[in-house]
Design a protein that fits this description.
The complex is a heterodimer of chains A (660) and B (291).
Chain A: H1 3-40, H2 48-82, H3 94-108, H4 114-137, H5 143-167, H6 172-179, H7 189-207, H8 209-215, H9 218-223, H10 228-250, H11 256-266, H12 272-301, H13 307-323, H14 345-365, E1 366-368, E2 374-376, H15 383-414, H16 426-440, H17 446-469, H18 475-498, H19 503-511, H20 520-549, H21 551-556, H22 561-583, H23 589-599, H24 605-629, H25 638-655
Antiparallel strand pairs in A: 1-2
Chain B: H1 6-15, E1 31-34, H2 37-45, E2 49-53, H3 59-63, E3 73-74, H4 83-89, E4 93-96, H5 104-107, E5 113-115, H6 126-139, H7 143-163, E6 172-177, E7 182-186, H8 191-198, E8 214-218, E9 229-233, H9 240-244, H10 248-252, H11 254-257, E10 261-264, H12 273-290
Parallel strand pairs in B: 1-2, 1-4, 2-3, 4-5, 6-9, 9-10
Antiparallel strand pairs in B: 6-7, 7-8
The chains are: A mainly alpha (660), B alpha/beta (291).
Chain lengths: 660, 291
């Protein structure tokens, strides 16, 4: 055993020791009272304490060990294949895809058990991973694109799951618990099912240790005749399968697959083969440690906290530390280089504006009656309704336009096709502010809620600008930091909702992007901000255009790159804060709008901004109308509908491009 | 032609001249919109005019009593009341809970809003329910009916005390299944606890519950409740009993082995006096059958 391995083994032993102490703290007194025979032998049907030990506490311990190890193994595999220290089941979309599939299975086939259920979860995991890689393939699996794409797909799946959950109140509590990964067990069946599945996955992973090690040296591996793509594919499939089985068995254990391999690396395990052994041990130790301590806490206070949500709350911030380790050779995907399909801009913009105008008139007039019948309200009948419809429509229009303009600025500035305000973290800041005030004050009114959201957004904004200034993070790393804040928010949400607190539902509703809370004042503020943004846009467009060509050419043209970045980020943060207050943090309009505009032939910066603003406004206005009417009298969140409509379109745009 | 019912005959005979243009009998007085099922229970019971309520489609699943008047308009989800429908209903008064304070100012543009903090206060809700009943009586101009409801409920409670006597031999636990591994169990701060106290029944779950009066726990925690009678409230997710029937732990829990697991009709846990009476009556009927 060399020095490096000894050091890593030492740290691993320490974590396992801590897990053992926590287990002793939780199970020790019971075990002592039972004695070895009653504790570990087959219990008498009348011996309730022994039954509890044998069929609940011990299988729970085993489930923690298995899932912890499997997720850590999956994370190690992903990191090796993608050569990306931040890859993990939670950061490349696999876990969220599995979670969404599980929610759908629970809702639409509740009696589906065993393999049927496993297969549906597997399918979800593979689909999500396939989409992420489909988008990343074009960028040669740049670590940054994989993570950004993975987290965005993760948010997307999470938003769909949330909407499904809110629409099926009967299953609400159950779905929320699955989403936050509880390890509670009533017999050995879950463990028995999990064991062969995970063993097969681990065996597959073990067989690939050698080829995967060689993978680090591309040329060597190729000259040895390795089928590189086959090895990669196999390892990714093994990782996704391990994740899916865990999600299917106990729910989402967030970020464990990220922390454990990272700790293994930090403990000094540099070689891949070492990490493949040490990371699973650390993962098992960490999950046991968390779950046992939560059991102690639970029996002392009665408060139920699922382990999966707790690991996510701890793990998401850990990502911030890992960001510094991202390889610096990253080449972000060029978002603006190609000029294909460029058209005369004025006619395109004119058509977009006309369509937008027509849509706004239509959605203002059409509505539904108390009994559900469709009707077009005109004249006097429309007047009392305008007070409700207009603010929502104006708010949606303004928010859509602002988010889309922000998206253009961010994509141009970072040169990253996946950049958007949704991943900037400002919306997450607003949501955290709302969460804080909902849970601290007994009955916060509208003004308090708005103020808290604005404060949260501002705090996130300040943090972002600080990162740019002090920590000298470049545009793309700022985005990753923002996404991390979003992931932290999601983790906190699932922790709160798992306790069954009804207030969490209000927050969930807002998170799905409802325009419901928009009133006259809010709409007015949004409209003013949107107009201001469109006035500022031309001033920004020249330096941005130069910057998106290359920082060097921008500098030679006399652009102060740092200053431009600073102000552009500030503008983006401000705009997305106002927009988030209106349509929630997950509309994806800021990601979709710029791409649609460019596909419409608006290649230069200013036309793209205007086109994106029109497209974004159109998308949000239609989403708001659909949300208000299709499921009447229930309302579907506009942000969610725009994501549902635009998300698949965006994936298609990013994966398939016209041949030039 | 609509079927001739006793109610329509009565309405035609007695109130022909007073009937509003709608064409069918409606209780008179201010037209209420309730944003909460619990408050709606009381309004219906005191014969106030209830014109709108959110998620009416869940009434039959969770609230059940008293029957919801068919004329009550559906306002969508309770988290996002459909403002357009609300505006079209032109209510005289909106009653709500602190849960919806965030949209209060906008609702106040349509009608006065009165908010009733009853549940989630971290204390027994009974006194607040009685106070809310009186206040709703005043608002609806049905003070007598409200007093009668309070007296009627007290009478039901005292009347059932004898009927539930056979249930006093063991503590009693009320719970909902969330999924195959977790239950929501009711205790301190819950309306159910108030009913049990007034019927001199003992709750088998004395551990912590949240401000709403329930705790989310794993099924293994049910080992602590010994041989209590366990009332499993409807609805139960369809996979729960098939999965649990294969669990040795579940099969050997004292109350399962003793056959003291009872599927029980649901009672609105965040309800008002009609919920109190319903639970007391259902327990009384159960006690009489199994005495």
């Amino acid at each position: 055993m060399d020095r490096e391995t000894r050091r890593a083994a030492g740290w691993t032993a320490l974590i396992l020791l801590l897990a053992a102490i926590a287990t002793a703290l939780n199970l020790g007194p019971r075990l002592a009272a039972l004695g070895p025979e009653r504790a570990f032998g087959l219990p008498q049907p009348t011996d309730l304490d022994a039954l509890l030990m044998h069929y609940s506490l011990l299988p729970r311990l085993a489930a923690g060990a298995l899932c912890g190890a499997a997720l850590a193994l999956a994370g190690t595999l992903f990191q090796q294949v993608l050569r990306n220290p931040v890859a993990s089941p939670s950061t490349i979309g696999v876990e969220a895809g599995a979670g969404l599939a599980l929610a759908m299975a629970t809702l639409y086939a509740p009696t589906l058990l065993g393999w049927g259920r496993d297969l549906s979860v597997l399918l979800g995991a593979f689909l999500a991973m396939g989409i992420v890689f489909g988008m990343a393939a074009r960028f040669r699996f740049s670590p940054l694109v994989v993570i950004l794409g993975g987290l965005v797909v993760g948010f997307y799946c999470g938003a769909v799951t949330t909407t499904l959950t809110l629409m099926h109140e009967h299953y609400l509590a159950g779905l929320l618990i699955w989403g936050s990964g509880s390890l509670a067990q009533q017999d050995w069946r879950i463990v028995q099912d999990l064991l062969p599945r995970l063993a097969a996955g681990s065996l597959l992973a073990g067989l690939m240790v050698r080829p995967l090690t060689l993978l680090q040296l591309d040329e060597t591996a190729a000259s040895l005749g390795l089928r590189l793509s086959l090895v990669r594919l196999g390892a990714l499939a093994a990782g996704a399968a391990l994740t899916a089985f865990c999600v299917g068995a106990v729910g989402v254990i967030g970020f464990l697959g990220l922390i454990a391999p990272a700790l293994a690396r930090a403990a000094g395990a540099r070689r891949f083969a070492t990490r493949m052994v040490i990371a699973p041990l650390i993962g098992a130790g960490l999950l046991i440690l968390t779950d046992q301590l939560l059991q102690v806490l639970g029996s002392a206070s009665g408060i139920f906290l699922p382990a999966g949500a707790v690991t996510a709350v701890i793990g998401a911030p850990a990502m911030l530390l890992l960001l510094r380790r991202m390889p610096s050779r990253m080449r972000p995907p060029a978002a603006t280089s190609e000029n294909q399909g460029r058209r005369a801009t004025t006619p395109v913009l004119a058509v977009l504006a006309t369509v937008l105008l027509g849509t706004v008139i239509a959605v203002t007039i059409v509505g539904r009656d108390v009994d559900g019948g469709w009707l077009a309200n005109l004249g006097a009948a429309l007047d009392p309704l305008l007070a409700w419809r207009l603010p929502r429509t104006i708010g949606a229009l303004a928010a859509g336009a602002m988010l889309a303009v922000t998206g253009v600025i961010l994509q141009r500035m970072t040169g990253n096709a996946m950049a958007s305000p949704e991943v900037l973290g400002v919306s997450a800041g607003a949501a955290l502010g709302l969460m804080a005030v909902l849970f601290i004050l007994p009955a916060p009114g509208y003004l308090t809620q708005t103020g808290a959201m604005a404060a949260g957004a501002l705090a996130a904004l300040a943090g972002l600008l600080w990162l740019v200034r002090r920590a000298r993070l470049s545009g793309n790393r700022v985005l990753l930091a923002g996404v991390t804040l979003g992931a932290f928010l999601m983790a906190l949400m699932s922790l709160v909702t798992a306790t069954g607190d009804p207030r969490a539902l209000l927050l969930m509703t807002w998170m799905t992007g409802s325009t419901y809370a928009v009133d006259g004042t809010r709409a007015l503020i949004a409209a003013i901000a949107a107009i201001a943004a469109l006035i500022c846009a031309p001033a920004m467009s020249r330096p941005l255009e130069l910057l998106s060509l290359s920082p060097v050419s921008a500098r030679t043209a006399g652009v102060d790159v740092r200053r431009t970045q600073f102000w552009a980020l500030g503008l983006c943060a401000g705009l997305s804060a106002v927009a988030t207050l209106v349509v929630g943090p997950l509309s994806f309009v800021g990601l979709i709008g710029p791409h649609l505009a460019r596909r419409a032939g608006l290649a230069r910066c200013l036309p793209q901004m205007l086109g994106a603003a029109l497209t974004g406004a159109l998308l949000m206005a239609m989403a708001d109308f659909l949300g208000r009417t299709v499921y009447f009298p229930w309302q579907l969140p506009a942000g969610m509908i725009s994501a549902l409509l635009g998300g698949p379109a965006l994936v298609l745009l990013l994966i398939w491009r016209p041949k030039t | 032609m609509p079927p001739i019912t006793r109610r329509s005959l009565l309405a035609a005979g007695l109130g022909g001249a007073l009937l509003p243009a709608v064409g069918y009998a409606r209780p008179e007085g201010p037209r209420f919109v309730s944003l909460d099922h619990g408050l709606a229970q009381t309004l219906i019971e005191i014969d106030a005019a209830l014109v709108g309520l959110p998620q009416t489609q869940y009434w039959e699943t969770w609230t059940i009593e008293p029957p919801l008047p068919a004329s009550t308009a559906n306002l969508g989800t309770s988290r996002e009341i459909n403002m357009e429908v609300l505006a079209r209903l032109r209510p005289d008064l909106i009653v709500s809970t602190p849960y919806l304070e965030g949209v209060r100012d906008r609702m106040e543009r349509m009608a006065p809003v009165e908010s009733f903090p009853i549940h989630a206060l971290g204390k027994s809700p009974y006194a607040d329910i009685v106070a809310a009943t009186r206040r709703l009586g005043v608002l609806a101009d049905r003070e007598q009916a409200a007093d009668q409801l309070i007296r009627r409920t007290e009478k039901t409670l005292s009347g059932m005390r004898a009927a539930v006597a056979p249930l006093r031999d063991a503590p009693l636990v009320m719970l909902n299944f969330i999924d195959t591994r977790h239950v929501r169990i009711y205790g301190e701060n819950c309306l159910f606890q108030d009913v049990l106290d007034r019927l001199n029944l003992r709750n088998g779950w004395s551990r912590w519950t949240n401000a709403w009066g329930f705790a989310t726990v794993g099924i293994e925690s049910l080992a602590d409740i010994g041989d209590s009678r366990v009332f499993v409230l409807d609805p139960v997710p369809s996979d729960v009993f098939p999965v649990l029937s294969g669990s040795p732990l579940w099969q050997n829990l004292p109350f399962v082995k003793a056959g003291r697991l009872i599927r029980f009709p649901t009672v609105l846990m965040f309800g008002t006096l009609p919920s109190v009476a319903r639970l007391a009556r259902l327990l009384g009927e159960f006690g009489a059958r199994h005495g």
